[in-house]
Design goal:
The termini are far apart. The protein is built from no helices and eleven strands. It has strands at 36-37, 42-47, 51-63, 70-79, 84-99, 109-113, 134-136, 142-150, 153-156, 164-172, 179-194. A hairpin with a 3-residue loop joins strand 2 and strand 3. The protein has a single domain, classed as Jelly Rolls, CATH 2.60.120. The relative contact order is 0.28.
């Protein structure tokens, strides 16, 4: 007899087949209620179609301050499925931001938000939707990996447009230059059903 014991013939159940235990390695990959990764971003989706863990990986997202001025920039990372109610329980961020020589010492605000800071003219992000998922503390654009864990936040995508995740940055820049972002962002979220 094994540790599982034994099963006697049922006198009350018919057409029951027992095929043994199901074992899996790693997390199940889902193809239900998926979002869309932006160009240059790879998304791995695990979960059961309701509870999702979305892992975003990128290595060459470039934002380019155009001059020595107060400017903001945003880059799309991911768009959640359309017309769904969503609840984000946490985000884990590992991000390295590397500036070109004129601005490697700049200290921009960097954050994840549901709205883009593209074409902004402020030295800071808006304190609202430009950074409503998570902020990342940056004391120089020197390529150091910064880590942050945050959550929860609830989002309704609305009835026609999908909710998106942007990587945003703002500063009073010392000069024109480029900032290249590389990292991994893990989003833990739940699909609560249709909002249509």
């Amino acid at each position: 007899m094994t540790s599982l014991g034994y099963i006697q013939k049922s006198t009350t159940l018919n057409n029951v087949e027992i095929t043994g235990e199901q074992k899996t390695s790693g997390y199940p990959v889902t193809d239900l209620n998926l979002g869309t990764a932006a160009d240059g971003v790879t998304a791995v989706e695990t979960g059961d179609g309701r509870h999702h863990v979305t892992t975003l990986t990128f290595s060459g997202i470039v934002q380019s301050p155009a001059s020595a001025a107060a400017l903001g920039y945003g880059s799309l990372l991911y768009t959640f499925p359309a017309n769904r109610y969503l609840n984000m329980t946490s985000a884990v961020i590992e991000l390295a931001s590397t500036g070109s020589a004129p601005i490697v010492g700049d200290t921009p605000e960097i954050a994840l938000g549901t709205a883009t800071a593209e074409s902004g003219t402020s030295p800071t992000l808006d304190g609202g939707t430009q950074e409503d998922i998570a902020t990342v503390s940056v004391d120089a654009c020197d390529g150091t990996v910064r880590k942050r864990v945050t959550g929860p936040a609830a989002y309704a995508t609305g009835y026609s447009a999908s909710q998106s995740v942007y990587l945003n940055m703002a500063d009073t820049w010392a000069a024109a230059g480029t900032v290249t972002h590389a990292g991994t962002i893990t989003l833990n979220w739940t699909d609560l059903g249709s909002s249509a």
